[in-house]
Amino acid sequence: MTDAALFHSFFDHLPGMAFQVQLGNGDTLHFNYISPGSVAVLDIPAADLTLHPHLMLNCIHPEDKERFLTSLRQAIFDISPWNWEGRIVLAKNKEVKWVNLRATCRQNTNLVTILEGFMVNITQSKQNALEIMHAHQQLRELSSYIEDFKEQERGRIAREIHDDIGVLLTAVKMDLSWLTLQLPPEKQALREKSREMSQLLDTAVDTVNNLIHTLRPGVLDHFGIAAAIEIEAKDFSRRTGITCRVIATEDDLELSSEHATSLFRTVQEILNNIMMRSGNHSVRIKLHKENDCVTLQVSDDGNGYKEEEHLKQRELGLRIVKLRISHLGGCSYFEYDTDRSIIVTVSLPLTDCSCEDCNNFQPTLF
């Protein structure tokens, strides 16, 4: 077999369309060579494309045609590789395919720019990517639903504890106080026992209040996110001895219940992670509004996790934080300083945010 025959045999059996093309005036294409693979990709014989190169442009999806031509012009202008990925529409049955095009760009001896490359059908891989994307979206929605359901159950249980157990303990406390007043002065043993019972009731009331706060802090619903974070920070400092400073630029920041809950749970999760690490002396929490976004930033000065450690320790709950924030259209960042401290930044849009990082735009394939 001659070299020419070997060359043609090679290109004839490639799983795609090899081509050599140049761009003429008025965005007209001129094909110097097209492999038989054009039938598999475009459903157009190579001879027809050579005689009628406009058939190639006619196949480009209307929504992708301008991007196709722009990338082609740019490659020719820069004498750089031409890379394009988009949709085509077959003329016969209007079937939509995704194709990937890669070509090199050079000038011949007459300074005519020529592009030589390959086009391949990637519809199946795009469909697989779409299915994976949809599966991830369903997992995010399921995770968000579970978190929302948990918050609803926490609120319901907190209200029931407050309305039932809280009221019952208050009534017992009042009855015990009345009984104590009825005891004769000489009954010191009974008075001492009454005092001990009163202390136990006070402890029980504090325990119930702490449980209610853990389940659903009432201050979050009545006084807002800034006040709730402030109280949580003070409670954290009291329990751990770590200084926790809160900087809130707006005390009356108005957020939806879902947004406020997400930010509050984020603070709780981060503080819980900080508490489990050693070497922390101070924590700073900053809450501020900028344009149409509210931003929360939590930083510490201790032995934060190395990034690879964070990725392994899923039990930290920071992945849940990212999923929760992402579902609300927000974004979260985890930064690791050289001293191993960690800075967590969360941004939530109050309206339809134009920030590219906060947009969860999912393009459709067809």
Keywords:
Beta-Lactamase; 12 helices; disordered C terminus; alpha+beta; 51% helix; 3 domains; 5-stranded mixed sheet; Heat Shock Protein 90; 5-stranded antiparallel sheet; elongated; 366 residues; 10 strands
| Top-tier CATH class of the largest domain | Alpha Beta
- Total number of helices: 12
Shape: elongated
Main pleated-sheet profile: 5 strands, antiparallel
Order of helices and strands: HEEHHHHEEEHHHHEHEEHHEE
Q: Distance N terminus to C terminus?
A: 44 Å
Q: Tell me what the CATH architecture of the largest domain is.
A: 2-Layer Sandwich
Secondary-structure class? alpha+beta
Strand order of the largest sheet: 2-1-5-4-3
| Spans of at least 5 consecutive residues with low confidence | 357-366
Radius of gyration: 33 Å
* CATH fold field value of the largest domain: Heat Shock Protein 90
How does this structure look, described?
This protein is an alpha+beta fold and 366 residues long. The chain folds into three domains: 3-121, Beta-Lactamase (2-Layer Sandwich), CATH 3.30.450.20; 126-216; 219-366, Histidine kinase-like ATPase, C-terminal domain (Heat Shock Protein 90, 2-Layer Sandwich), CATH 3.30.565. Helices cover 51% and strands 22% of the residues. It is built from twelve helices and ten strands. It has helices at residues 3-12, 38-42, 46-51, 54-59, 65-78, 123-182, 188-215, 218-222, 225-240, 257-275, 307-312, 318-327, and strands spanning 17-23, 29-34, 82-89, 96-107, 113-121, 243-248, 282-290, 293-300, 331-336, 342-349. The strands form two sheets. Strands 2-1-5-4-3 form a five-stranded antiparallel β-sheet, with helices on both faces. It has a five-stranded mixed β-sheet with strand order 6-7-8-10-9, with helices on one face. β1 and β2 form a beta hairpin. α6 crosses α12. The longest helix is centred in the middle third of the chain and has 60 residues, at 123-182. The radius of gyration is 33 Å and the shape is elongated. The two termini are 44 Å apart. The model is unreliable at 357-366 (pLDDT under 50).
